[in-house]
Structure formats: C-alpha cells, structure tokens
Amino acid sequence: MQLKEKAEFFYRKRVLSPIKQQLTQGVSIEKIALTLALSVSLGIFPILGSTSLVCLLVGGLLRLNLPFLLVTKSFFVGLHLALIMVFIRMGESLNRVEPITLGIDEMLAEFKESPSQFFQDFGLTAWYAIQAWFLVAIPLTVGLHFLFRWLLRNYATKFLSSTIAAP
Fold first, then answer.
1. Beta carbons within 8 Å of 132's beta carbon, 6+ residues apart
2. Confidence (pTM)
3. What's the rounded Cα separation, in Å, for the pair 103 and 110?
4. Which of 14, 38, 62, 83 has an alpha carbon 20 to 30 Å from 103's alpha carbon atom?
C-alpha cells in the first residue's frame, strides 16, 4: 500500500467511520461538532497528563460521547506537547513575570524527584499557562464548532443521500 492509500485508509477508518457511526446512532450534528471542537481545545490543555481528566469532566458535564471525545482528543497529542511551552510563555507575558529557565525535560525530572517541591516551584507557572490556554481555547472552540458543524452538515447530506440512493 502506498502512503497516499494508507493515509486515505486511516482517514476513512479513524475519522469518517466514527463520525458516520455517530450520525447513524442518532447523535445530532451539533453534539458531534461540539465534541470535535472540544477534543481539539481540551486536547491542548497545557498541563501534561491532565487532558483526559479535563475531557472527562467537561464531556460529562455536557453529556457528550466520552469515548468519542477521548479518541478524537488523542489525535492532538503532538500539538499538545508542542504548545505547552507556548502557553507557559504566553501566560508569563500576560502576567508580566520573569520567564522560567527550565525546559520541559528539566521540569519532568524535577517533578519525578519531588512532586510537592515541583508544585511549590511551578504552581504559578501552571496557572499562567492555564490562563493563556483559556484565552485561546474559547475562540478556538467556538470557531471550530462552527467549522465542524458546517463540514458535518455537508458530509451528512452526502452520506444520507448516498445511503438513500443505494439499493
């Protein structure tokens, strides 16, 4: 199988198929679009190891399909890791504090050595990153919700018309 065929297979199996399943189970386009939008914005929450818990809390409160939310969130792990330091720096800038000098690797090593000391040293840094994420997450979620809703309406129209037309 060539790379293009593999990518198309992955897209159909891991993206379109679960969405089609949701549609055939009666889940509204609104709920699917909201779930997809939240999977992106919650998937980039800037605290390492917490995105699943955040998804469970928010998804549970909004009565979303939690397995679907968690699976789609997992597509954004790379983006999540890439944005942690961006959110930290953005939060430091917003709060006009001196930037921390440690990178992610050093912070993880310090966390493993003494979690309580780590939280004393970097608790405010985490709070600053969360503030920055929140400023990004709200417009990101709203924008993605509208985009996914539009895409899903187009997809549902094509999917339903091809299903009806088939013998």
1. 46, 87, 88, 90, 91, 94
2. 0.80
3. 11
4. 38
